[in-house]
């Protein structure tokens, strides 16, 4: 996909998505990978795990194994077995137990900025909140959170403003090497934590996974490391950008913020609309499990197929007036958390954190406005959608 302006595309991609849906709904990028952009095709991609595999190791040499080995790149039956273990941390009962702590953290973060009348939603709220929560769940030192932020940024960022012309493959290779280096650092960190938990188990997810058995067998070290890295990275990126994107939406549509302050019971519906309108994750990847035809295009076994969930969420064939930001929209079957067996495991936690954080923000502060003294800088990533910083001013109620 060739953007008109990479910077504009990253923050305002919908014109590009509209062109893809209309002109090239099944698009081949220089014979390297396929892109699908309609709701129907993206839904098929993430739902039919027999047609579209998540297991890269089936189609690539062992030397090119994925940097992150987790349930994200597994197929059944192993995926089902491991997902059932981790899902216990995100049951309604488990989330109910987390609610007081998430509320306490949010209160402390807002207390720290209240007298200033200004804050950066990302730096002061939507980044530290999920990082603290996931660090406590994993049982790792919260003071290491600057390192967690660095690792997360390294995983999702890229040199995408250079992804045109003859240097494309060189740029992609640099990105791959940086991601692998970052994953090596993350794995080294968690190997040390895992070794500590083997000696001194605690009340945390890592200790629970060490004690878990699947068909009588312990989890392998690679599986343990995959869980830890996935929780650390995915556990903060989605919430960080969901809350930041909510402020972008409310700033563009101030009537929605007024409506929420008058009717806070609409907040869950508003969060779903933010997820649809400005999805924190805009792209999902699979591998063709066999040769097949999609909209008259032959897709070969092993080829990468990318589904633009951000585009699917604006498909007028599925959503009425998709370009309208409507916090009362119902139904709202967006694909921002995927669908099917790989539906985002942490979606309930991300929704809970966003509900508490946004609810408290709107309850405590009024006249909330983004300061536009400088242009917002997008997260430099092809699959994460949001702004690096969202500075706001506010008045205390």
Automatic annotation (TrEMBL):
Keyword 4Fe-4S: no
GO molecular function, one term: heme binding
PROSITE patterns: CYTOCHROME_P450
Coiled coil (UniProt feature): none
Keywords, in A-Z order: Heme, Iron, Metal-binding, Monooxygenase, Oxidoreductase
Keyword Phosphoprotein among record annotations: no
InterPro entries named in the record: Cyt_P450, Cyt_P450_B, Cyt_P450_CS, Cyt_P450_sf
Pfam families, per database record: p450
SUPFAM superfamilies: Cytochrome P450
Family (UniProt): Belongs to the cytochrome P450 family.
Listed name of the protein: Putative cytochrome P450 YjiB
